Amino acid sequence: MFNAIRKHQRILMLIVVILTILAFTFFYTRTSSIDYEGKRKVGSAYGSVMTPEDVHRLAENYQLAIVLGLDEMLESLGGMTRDESVSLNNFILNQLIVEHEAKTLGVEPKDSQVALAITERPIFQTGGRFDSDKYRGFIKNQLIPRGIRENQLEELIRNSLRVASVRKIVTGSVTVSDQEIRNAFRGYQKQNLQVVTFDLENYANKVRIPEDQIKQLYEKQSAELKSPETRTVRYVVFKVPKEKELLQGKERVEALQAVADQAAGFSESLSENKISLEETAHQAGLLVHTSLPIDRTGSGLSAEAFQGDLPNLVPAIFQLSQKEPHSEALEGSQKTHFYVFELNSITPSRPLSFEEAHPELLDFLRKQAARKLLYEEGGSALASISKQLYQGQSLAEATAKIGGKVQNISGTALYSSSSPENALYNEVALFLSPGQLSSLQPSPKGAFSVFLRTREAINSSELAQKKDSLKAQLLKNKQTLLFLEWLQGARKRANIHIN
Fold first, then answer.
1. Which of 98, 181, 289, 446 has the most CB atoms around its CB within 10 Å?
2. Beta bridge partners of 199
3. 99 within a domain of the structure (yes/no)
């Protein structure tokens, strides 16, 4: 894992933001935010005071859990969503819940269990065995410089054991039936489908939006209609040399680490020497690039220069400021190159005039009206098709009468779909019986309906081969959903309040 903590700069920034909010709350609220013992109070849970130090500790645990690869803990506490702020919030609050409930249930881990769990973390092992030098190096080089003590790592591991124990108690009664396994196996069974599609654009061409309706929407939404803030950056790129791109194993790891170290060293020299990126790059003999304007979506002409990396880099670019203009070394999606950015210019957001907002408003109203028309006319069309199918006509014949076309897809399965569209069709077909037509289903391009012609019979030997893995995955999914549901109920009982 290259620069593991450095890669989670966004998470660290989220922690800083939360602590800033909490500090603001503390200093600008009434003196009742200090209890009789003189503790700073930012909230309460289970009737006990929550301090900024408590929140700081739990937030640091999130970053540390990612670095240590505690994926099961992160998943169980709802800390693996696409939105990092939601993940962090879930992780902080659910840790409080589990710490309290574990004591209530009497499942406090012993020190010997914590020690064993630490030795079993892959990050502290060499050749599958605990490496004390790696452990001490991690404490010295990764934790201490960031103000994290060894006992906090031990407490995080203790919390992970609490989570596992409480989860086992809560979900102990969950089972998976043979029928559920057979249903899940449908994802491997080949199906012969027919699909009727309804193109949203065809319905959009039918609608007409009055100008006064666009003006009404503009007046209603004018406060939110703004041009996007854009930024330009100067940057340098550190790449693995072409002759080393095809290396494998240890040699590849060493080549990647060398580039990561070079990029990290360059970033550190920027912050330490307080000179511009251009000067530092000149001293290092590196080429400086200047981007075109970038917005928060990472789209536009500038995206081409970043070879698909820009969407992942945008959050870091928009954290830069005139006071802190330089980024850390940021890894590209191919993991063979790194970027270091310097803020060049900012074009702030501004209110849009009616003329500027007109195309976007018109497009929104057209699509809204088109989707409504699609479901009205598409629903009627499907009802007509279903009636004719019942009377013995084929899907192609019934669809032709409404001016539609049928797409035939043969020998396809959910887990071997050739495209996202096919995967979507197969997923809908899983819940159908042969000869059954689905209801109208939404799609990015409009809507569709699937007719399941045939589904191949279950291959008993293949089912037997996959049964254990399917059962394990189904069991894990059901346990996770049940545990998250239990956590939601426990949150209500915890009576959590934030000032």
1. 98
2. 446
3. yes
Q: 134-163: string of b/e by CB count within 10 Å (b at 16+)?
A: ebeebeeebbeeeebeeeebebbbbbbbbb
Whether residue 52 is contained in a domain is answered as yes
pLDDT of residue 10: 45
Domain range holding 321?
A: 230-347
Q: How far apart are CA 328 and CA 319, in angstroms?
A: 11
SS3 at position 406: strand
Q: What CA–CA distances, in Å, run from 52 to 92, 94, 153, 156, 157?
A: 12, 17, 19, 18, 22
SS3 211: helix
Say if CB 375 and CB 440 are below 8 A apart.
Answer: yes
Residue 182: inside a domain, yes or no? no
Greatest mean pLDDT among 76-80, 202-206, 329-333 lies in: 202-206
Intra-chain end-to-end CA distance of the chain, in Å: 39
pLDDT tens digits, 16-27: 444 433 333 333
Cβ within 8 Å of residue 78, ≥6 positions away: 86, 87, 90, 91, 94, 484, 487
pTM: 0.62
The model's pLDDT over 284-304, given as tens digits with 9 standing for 90+, comes to 888 999 999 999 888 777 777
Say if residues 292 and 232 touch (Cβ distance below 8 Å).
Answer: yes
- Interatomic CA distance for residues 466 and 201, integer angstroms: 42
Q: Give the CA diameter of the chain.
A: 82
Tokens standing for residue 143: 């934790």
Q: For 182-216, write each residue's pLDDT tens digit.
A: 999 999 999 999 999 999 999 999 999 999 999 99
User: Tell me: the pLDDT tens digits for 104-113?
Assistant: 999 999 999 9
**Residues 418-425: what's their mean pLDDT?**
91
Q: Does any domain span residue 21?
A: yes
Of 347, 371, 394, the residue that ends a domain is 347
Which residue shows structure tokens 């996770």?
480
Q: How many domains does the chain have?
A: 3
Tens of pLDDT, residues 139-174: 988 888 777 888 989 999 999 999 999 999 999 999
Q: What is the 8-class DSSP label of residue 456? A: P
146 plus 264 within the same structural domain:
no
- Residues forming beta bridges with residue 195, ordered by sequence position: 407, 450
Token code pair at residue 57: 């500790």
Q: Which residues are within 8 A (CB) of 105 and not within 5 positions of it... i.e. 6 or more apart?
A: 165, 166, 169
- Is 13 in the same domain as 111? yes
CATH number at residue 307: 3.10.50
411: left (phi over 0), alpha (psi -120 to 50) or beta: left
Place 225 in a pLDDT band, splitting at 50, 70 and 90. very high
